Amino acid sequence: MGEPPVAPPPTAAFEGPQDAADAIYGSGAMAAARDAMRKAHGGVAVHKMLLDRAEARLRDGEDGYLIDGQAWFGGDIDKAWFKTELEGGFDEGVDEAEIQALWSHAIGPWFDLQTGVRYDARSGSDRAHLVLGVQGLAPYWLETEAAVFLSTKGDITARAEAEHDVRVTQTVILQPRAELNFSLQDVPELALGSGLTNVALGARLRYQVTPTFAPYVGVEYDRAFGDTGRFRTARGESRGGWNILLGVRTWF
Questions:
Q1: Residues 121, 127, 131, 134: is their CA dihedral positive or negative?
Q2: How far apart are CA 70 and CA 86, in angstroms?
Q3: pTM flag (> 0.90)
Q4: Residue 1 pLDDT > 70, yes or no?
Q5: How far apart are CA 141 and CA 198, in angstroms?
Q6: Which long-range contacts (CB under 8 A, 24 or more apart) does 100-107 make?
Q7: Which among 55, 64, 123, 98 has a CA at the least distance from the CA of 241?
């Protein structure tokens, strides 16, 4: 026997009413059924709170901590998205605190467009920003974020981040991570020079005790470049170095 013929659907298949079942069961009953089907296939509000990095950062004479978290609420297309990052020394409290409140809109199956506001709390240098960025899953399962920030003082900066989970076993996961920061102009009060300001490259090895709780260890190298490095040196700070990381990742 030969292969069955392959042909497109007949034109008559497209000539009937869009919701033909309404004629039999009534539009009210079918509207409720269609709404239930949309919810069953993902048309419901969801939420998640992720503490991506809560870690001690150990370096000679500069031990400190970093807390990086996100939370979102909404549907498949639109979400309210919140991000926060706290950084400081164990003996000095919080040096920098960043909070973002964003509207996130899906622009495809893999990426969201995000826009909103960001507020930085720093000693003597508080400022707010407008935010425009994208976040999603790039090819080869790269979790990526990229955003441009316009501050109330006219400064334009940008940030790009990428990380990738390599599953060594079902419970042991290696996560390489990279972060690059840029500035369009010198901002001496923030010790930022124009161009590429600093890069952080690292890897974290975590053990997944449960799907929602995973302690980790890791290493990271960060380096300031150009005028940013010179500003840091003038403040008596190092241009960069290695950090030993001890932390935990959790979500709910």
A1: negative
A2: 12
A3: no
A4: no
A5: 25
A6: 100/131, 102/131, 103/78, 103/79, 104/72, 104/74, 104/78, 104/79, 104/80, 104/135, 105/77, 105/78, 106/76, 106/77, 106/78, 107/134
A7: 64
Is 72 within 8 Å of 80 (Cβ atoms)? yes
Query: Which residues on neighbouring strands pair with residue 55, listed in sequence order?
Result: 66, 247
Model confidence pLDDT, tens digit, residues 10-38: 887 777 777 888 888 888 888 898 888 87
For residue 80, give the nearest of 89, 90, 70 by alpha carbon: 70
pLDDT tens-digit readout, 169-178 = 999 999 999 9
* Distance between start and end Cα atoms, the chain: 56
Give the Å distances, CA to CA, from 26 to 13, 29, 38: 22, 6, 19
Q: What would the two tokens of residue 186 be? A: 């010198």
Decide: 28 and 36 in contact? Cβ < 8 Å: no
pLDDT for res 76: 86
Backbone angles phi, psi at 74, to 5 degrees: 155, -160
**Residues 62 and 87 sit within 8 Å (Cβ to Cβ):** no
pLDDT digits (tens, 9 = 90+) for 102-153: 999 999 999 999 999 999 998 767 899 999 999 999 999 999 999 999 999 9
Look-up of token digits 């470049």: 225
Q: Which two tokens stand for residue 95?
A: 């040096």
Amino acid letter, 208 = Q
CA distances from 166 to 106, 140, 141, 177 (A): 26, 11, 10, 11
